[in-house]
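Submission sheet (multi-component)
Chains listed below:
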Amino acid sequence: MRVKLIYSHSVVEKPILASIVLKTGIPINILEARINAQKGELIISIPASGEKLEEILNLFRESGVQVQEFIETLRIDWDKCIACGACISPCPTRALRFREDWKLEFIEEKCVACGICVAACPVKAINMP
Amino acid sequence: MSEEDGEIRSIDEINEKIKHGDAVVLTAEEMIKLVESSGLEVAAKEVDVVTSGTFGAMCSSGAFLNFGHSDPPIKMARCWLNDVPVYKGLAAVDGYLGASSMSETKGFEYGGGHVIEDLVSGRDILLRAESYGTDCYPRRHIETAITIDDLNQAMLVNPRNCYQKYDAATNSSDRVLYTYMGTLLPNYGNITFSGAGQLNPLCKDPNYETIGFGTKIFLGGGKGYIIGEGTQHNPTSGYGTLMVKGDLKQMNSRYLRGASFHRYGTTLYVGVGIPIPIINMRVARTAALKDDEIYVDIRDYGAAVRPDLRPVIKRVSYAELRSGKVTIGDRDIPSSSLSSYKMAREIAETIKKWILEGTFFLTRPIEPLPKHGRTKPLKVKGRELRVGDIMSRNVITAKPSDDIKEVAARLVERGIDHLPVVDEDGKLAGIVTSWDLARAIAQDKRRLEEIMTRKVIVAFENESIDVVVRRMAQHNISGVPVVDRKNNVVGILTTDDVSRKIVGGRTAQ
Ligand code: SF4
Ligand code: SF4
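Outcome: structure written.
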């Protein structure tokens, strides 16, 4: 599950994420981070579900971090896609790749919605909703 | 005559077999597998035809269109299809629509390639034309909607298609480049390449033994013909090209796709496939060439120079490029294609199917294509204007430890805006502008080194003015110090110098 964390000014300097990882033993992965002295935004992927996931989300909330669900990043129009590959190597997180049969594959969990592939696609098959 | 020249079978014999449904046809990938498992001899004996294919952006593509005469008739002097300009230096109602001609209203988003796709899809196209009116063609304006069925002829005639192979691209510069080779990330962030390698038609018969004038091919989903070598045909270096023709009305938009490369322009993805008759051992061998035997250079698009002078970073095989990463030095750099291997494969399969069904017969070329020849660069008459021609050599510099107020006074007195900062040895250490100084004084800063910009955009004396002007525009700056290879400041070039010294186009001084 991927969520977006919004750190306010008052909590931005506390090691919240690290302590939650230590406490729960769940290896949370940071996909993207935008932090400055005033506030921070993290997009993380939590390899957990059900109660465990709720527990983690609550720990963030209790620490004063706003938690938002991170929903659909890209929409690929598979009828338009010509499987050229022009979007693959520019993607900074390797979220796009070829399958064995040379069809394009999108690995949503890795995508950070940077939009580079949208510009890179020559037939406009990728959109950001 | 070597052993390889001995004829195994003739094209006529193959056509006889096709007629009887006995021909053995493999795609290039299947041929490679067969050679690996059974050896070349066996494969050459068994296989009659090997099919190839490629599906990539081919800018030198377009269509001759004949609109038919209206009543009263018009001699179209200027013409647009969906706002895309059509070349009208032909007879009254003939035009040529080029794939990279761009819409006058939508720009990069829509161009000739898209119009061709829309025509082939049967969509309505807005035709607009203007004329000056003549005795025989009195009409001066026309605006109507047409479809491909309304056209008398719609002929795809592509002056350069089907490159044998194409050099890959990377970018050493510190910014993202948007090129016809796609998005190139800074600092060698990625590599892009084009061409189907082991499926690519011209890689399968690089000696032009079976591919020539008049060869029947798969073109855009229909049947077409090779009508000669393409422009920039460079067989000596292994970069051959083809000129092809086919009837647009019989094509399929699955294999003709309008495309646009971000901030570069529009183009057309064209599907081309050629059947290779296995007439002798040499052709059998080349038809089985593999990705790891086909090499191209990776060139640095970060250098704004003539394409053939772009520095070569590495020579690589298609196998390495297609693996998804290329090792350069101690780094693994992500690589990906711009042309579709999946579609190339589909095209090779389609020709195979046509031949097996008995609906596609092979043709013997009426003449061979040139096997030798190179591509020349364009000679520019008169010398290209260089930075050294118009920069100011009398450059005023400052030291990092200089006092800001004193420096500001000096700038005002001389009426200049850019001040390179040099260290003890005369090497460039930073730059300040009059604006930086004004702000620094307001903030009560003291020394130049506190405020100078240390990452300086520079130019070299022998660089082209156009290149440096573009660099300044990209960084939104109005002046650059000119340095030598040892980073000594030798001059300064400002947008003022450029506009003042280049008057009326290119006549300097
Ligand atoms: S938006 Fe595109 S380029 Fe950016 S991370 Fe997602 S898939 Fe990759
Ligand atoms: S660049 Fe566009 S057409 Fe090419 S593989 Fe990616 S999504 Fe498909």
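Remark: The longest helix of chain A spans residues 50-62.
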